[in-house]
Design brief:
The protein is an alpha+beta fold. The chain contains 16 helices and 15 strands.
Length: about 500
């Protein structure tokens, strides 16, 4: 019996293509300033002093453009350092909720301002009549001129499937993404989020009491109860979300066609239709779907990312007869404090990484297992997120042609100057050529970026959590880079609001 060769996957190198000879725009600007400054200093007057001043200016700007500090050059660090210092001087690194000052109000619900990173984000709702009998919550992001809605999804033991079944699931998911790469699709971006959260011991007790057989062996039940009692707070469980984002320009076009003036309502209807189609595709791909989030469910999804313990408090209120989840106006944290290397919300400390390099060797479909499933046995919480943007074929072909022209031009300039072409540059060129062939064969180009946020109750444990996630990412053949200087904004990239791509 013939056995099929297992399918493997690999990613191209991260593009380092510059403007001229591999130099970025920032490097060219710094070098230009250095040359102009040196010429100005030398021409300011005769003598050795002017010459030395010119050489000093040129040398300093050369260091700014080319000298690495860590994994970045000084000119790459400059925006993060300047922004961090400016927010400190302006008092924008700390934020405190004012919800406790509102008291109880009748009529319109209280809506408190959100932190700097979420300003312009508003939670809206589409009524049950328009949303198939169940209210749907969705987001309006004014800063990015987009709307987004969230599906709650779940994995069905992907890691336990055999290799052939895993490959089949991956190909099904690829077909789902490819469907959104068509020019006619209204979906702008997708995002999947996998989040770990502390296991609820009371939920385990309730599950045992609700699901045990009436004639269950008393000794077995007693043994299960002892096991639950011995469970530590490190027990984790996963929750997954799939976010769909549409562009506001598409909403305007649809509103004009329908003669509708309420853009928010049109956006909600469009998102509901897209979620219905996506849900059908996911079910056909044998992926579990729990349906779209309500307004309170969406608010809770955001709030629990900031402060995980709020989930337990809201669950207690719900069991007492209250509504599930926080109100739409209370989706932010209680308080926040941004530092150079972490972001604090309430009593929780967060550190966010971006995936700098994806596997460039052949890997299987479950290569992320060390990163995703390693969190189950960890005492720390983490969130893994990936933002994807299917690129229409006409735009993808245009971008590839530009890249090919840039590669050829850069190679000729290097040959003219006698510079060597590195192996990495060869791999980048080969990856561009392979992408062009795949587009010609009818494949869909997808822009994507990955982020990981680790969460711990104090700064010391946060560093332990960071060391742990870096090791597990290395097992998954990923290179993680910690964000410095803008941890608050980076944290929002792992919230289900479909950010993370320029």
């Amino acid at each position: 019996m013939d056995q099929k060769t297992p399918i493997t996957y690999s990613f191209g190198p991260r593009e380092t293509r510059g403007v001229v000879l591999g130099l970025r725009a920032g490097q060219l600007l710094a070098l230009s300033i250095g040359v102009l400054g040196a010429i100005t200093a030398i021409r300011s007057g005769p003598g050795i002093v002017s010459l030395l001043a010119g050489l000093l200016i040129a040398s300093l700007m050369g260091l700014v453009a080319l000298m690495p500090v860590g994994h970045l050059t000084i000119e790459q660090w400059a925006p993060a350092v300047a922004g961090y210092l400016w927010r400190g001087l302006a008092g924008q690194r700390r934020w405190t909720s004012r919800a406790h000052l509102a008291g109880h109000r009748s009529g319109a619900p209280f809506r408190q301002p959100l932190p700097r990173s979420l300003q312009g984000v508003e939670i809206m709702g589409l009524g049950p009549v328009l949303a198939g009998g169940r209210e749907m919550g969705y987001l309006k992001d004014r800063r990015r001129a987009a709307y987004a809605a969230v599906l709650a999804v779940r994995g069905d033991s992907f890691a336990l499937l055999d290799r052939a079944e895993q490959d089949l699931r991956v190909s099904m998911w690829s077909s789902v993404i490819a469907g959104f790469g068509l020019r006619s699709s209204v979906i702008r971006r997708l995002q999947w989020v996998d989040r770990t959260l502390p296991e609820d011991r009371e939920a385990l007790d309730r599950y045992l009491e609700d699901c045990r057989a009436a004639d269950a062996d008393p000794e077995a039940v007693s043994s299960y109860r002892e096991l639950i009692e011995q469970a530590t707070s490190a027990a984790q469980r996963h929750e997954g979300f799939l976010v769909v984002q549409i562009d506001q320009r598409r909403v305007w076009k649809q509103a004009r066609q329908n003669g509708e003036r309420d853009l928010d309502k049109v956006a909600g209807l469009m998102l509901y239709q897209q979620l219905r189609e996506l849900e059908e595709w996911l079910r056909s791909a044998e992926l579990g779907v729990d349906g779209h989030l309500t307004v309170r469910g969406l608010a809770g999804c955001l709030r629990y990312g900031f402060e995980p313990e709020r989930r337990g408090l809201d669950a207690v209120r719900e069991r007492g007869g209250g509504e599930a989840g926080p109100a739409a106006g209370c989706a932010g944290p209680t308080a926040s404090d941004e530092r150079w290397a972490y972001y604090r919300t309430g009593r929780w400390y967060h550190a966010t990484y971006y995936v700098e390099e994806w596997p460039r060797v052949e890997v299987g479909p479950d290569f992320l297992r060390p990163l995703l499933l390693g969190a189950v046995e960890s005492p720390y919480l983490r969130t893994v997120s990936m933002a994807l943007e299917p690129v229409p074929s006409h735009r993808a072909n245009l971008e590839v042609r530009r890249a090919r022209v840039a590669d050829v031009t850069d190679e000729r300039q290097r040959q003219r100057l006698g510079q060597l072409v590195t192996a990495r540059q060869d791999r980048e060129r080969e990856h561009t050529e392979r992408t062009e062939r795949e587009l010609a064969d009818g494949h869909v180009s997808v822009r994507f970026a990955g982020y990981v946020t680790v969460t711990a109750p104090n700064a010391t444990e946060l560093e332990n959590a960071c060391s742990e996630v870096e090791q597990q990412a290395a097992q998954a053949r990923l290179v993680l880079s910690r964000v410095y200087g803008d941890q608050e904004m980076a944290f929002t990239l792992t919230l289900p609001i479909c950010r993370g791509l320029p």
